[in-house]
User: Fold this.
Amino acid sequence: MSALLPRPFDPAAVGPLEGCRVLDLSRLVSGGHCGMVLADLGADVIKIERPDGGDELRGGRIAGVAAFWTVYNRNKRSVSLNLKSEDGRRILLDLIQNADALLENFRPGTLEKLGLGPDVLLEANPRLVITRISGWGQTGPYCQMPGFGTLAEAVSGFMHRNGFADRPPAPPPTALADMVAGLYAATATVAAVLHARGGGPGQTIDVSLFEPLASIMGPDALLDQLGHLPTRGEGTRASSVKGVFRTSDDKWLALSAGAERIVKSLFAAIGEPDVLDDPRYSGYQARLDHRDEINAIIGRWIENRTSAQVLEVLRDQGVTIAPVLSMADARQDPHFLAREVYVDVPGRDGEPETIAMHNVVPRMSATPSGLRRPAPRLGEHNDEVLAEIGVSEEAMRDLVARGVLGKKATEAGDA
Assistant:
């Protein structure tokens, strides 16, 4: 049984971006995550989807649930609009007049081919922020190549470092490149909207999938220049004493002694204070060069004790150590429960009665935001969004009849 807390959607939840409108033409994870971050912070994010199926994430069902769609598109509204039609483009330009930002992640040049390039969009709204996410960026020799997150993870240096020395490079277990790019894109969008609201001009934001991931590799470029880039499986060198260790009850603990005082406390706690008198282990660089030997000493002490015993002894001495939790473990952990890291929200469209997902982050005291609405059915908000720009019910029926506007999912029978 799940230990998550039932959490109904709260349409009245207010975030710091309340009053900011974003037109989200993107699809899949990078755009979905960017839009989700903005929506979680209170922006009115309107998904503009093609009528014939919408965002591809809708079709990626696992155990009957479109898991990625359900999480990445919460707090958004959906309009099913055919942008290949002249009337569809006209409606988008009408919507843009009252928008702060537009988000897209097509292959570079696609907006221009639709007749909706930045010049056209900025003419309709000179203070519009146009956030463009693509595999390789809008310029450069690779810009027209197809690009997905796995390729970005490969070229960014991440995959080369990830895994173990005696095995092939390993991809991450999540859509990491897409999510990091989405975060960078959301941050830049907020900054550009603030600039425009302060009287500055609108602008385009060029976010690739591979550059944000390269940036989170930290000082790797400098370490490579210095000839000290860690090998695959070695992990980061931010801590000279670091590792994952198995306990006598077959559990795993992660330890990272990131400060000299913690290193000293650690070896004192395991009864090996003299280890640090050895020139091989006495300094930061020396310990990095002999990490395997250091970890063997620590590992021998840990492997003879249970996880609870190790945590009690080392935490009592201020050593930074934590259990390696599975998702099932995390969902039951008392600290996760107390902070409501994951919540159950009502399911819909054939989903289970409740759906588990991560809560809104970060936490803001005055504008805490919240989960306002579930991921929308395709075209669910056609009527209300178009009514906001003065389109009559009769005109909407005509647009549906001509294929400019899709039928609402409740009518079409789609999710």
